[in-house]
């Protein structure tokens, strides 16, 4: 094969969504309340479809199941990564995710550790990241008494910020923020607080208070990671995260830059610009909004153009 796999993916309507994913990337939205684009996904709730080559028409979960050789013979039961683009036109609910042990035991799927690259943020936009409770009992009391302003830790954000959000971290994306999220392949979310909002049918959205208390890390641990920057010929590579779950990089390319695989496969999302991806089998145009899988049989590639890319590879659990 030896060619990159371009992916067509699933858009998700959300109560807090908007139209930014069309405005920025030209994606064809089903409504004006689209909040998520599951850009690179093998999750059954929204698998990506391959657009080119001999596997055209297959979904990524089917490819993982039938052609594990394209992923270095990986042994995991499910494809471990999921890349999303989120448009928070309104505040997301305050939520928390379980770790693998709790998620597998209670939900039958992986837990969710994730990270956020802030693609854009309006002036004054903020996220919820962590809490101020010192004990589980204090956490439960503050939740029961609705002391959200005292409990929740809020942080103002700007374009280019990066946050590592391990399982057990109370968090929420605020209005006016667009992010690229790299996460474990899981759709388990425990909603702790939703500003008493009602859905389209006039009902309050379901909360998961006990599960949230069960899985929240107390006291909060700031998991911010120091980024590393390496300048090579025509590319600046920023390493944001090296974890058991995923490794996340930013490639700022100006000109022709050469790359060598550092993992069995690499996920690539083009956030800005355009250019050409070259591999042994040929040249492939890259445009803003492209999402690509570079499988095991692509050991070397080059990208020529002016682009900003977020790339990720699977983590290695020791």
UniProtKB/TrEMBL annotation:
Pfam families in the record: MPI_cupin_dom, PMI_typeI_cat
CDD domains xrefs: cupin_PMI_type_I_N_bac
Domain Mannose-6-phosphate isomerase cupin as annotated: residue spans: 237-313
Textual note on the cofactor: Binds 1 zinc ion per subunit.
One example of a Gene Ontology biological process annotation: carbohydrate metabolic process
UniProt similarity note: Belongs to the mannose-6-phosphate isomerase type 1 family.
Gene Ontology terms, MF aspect: mannose-6-phosphate isomerase activity; zinc ion binding
InterPro entries xrefs: Carb_Metab_Reg_Kinase/Isom, Man6P_Isoase-1, Man6P_isomerase_Firm_short, MPI_cupin_dom, PMI_typeI_cat, RmlC-like_jellyroll, RmlC_Cupin_sf
Record's keyword annotation contains Nucleus: no
Originating species: Carnobacterium iners
Phosphomannose isomerase type I catalytic domain location: 6-103
EC number(s) from the headed UniProt entry: 5.3.1.8
Cofactor: Zn(2+)
Binding of Zn(2+), residues: 97, 114, 171
Protein name per its UniProtKB record: Mannose-6-phosphate isomerase
Record: active site: 191
Catalytic activity: D-mannose 6-phosphate = D-fructose 6-phosphate
Entry keyword set: Isomerase, Metal-binding, Zinc
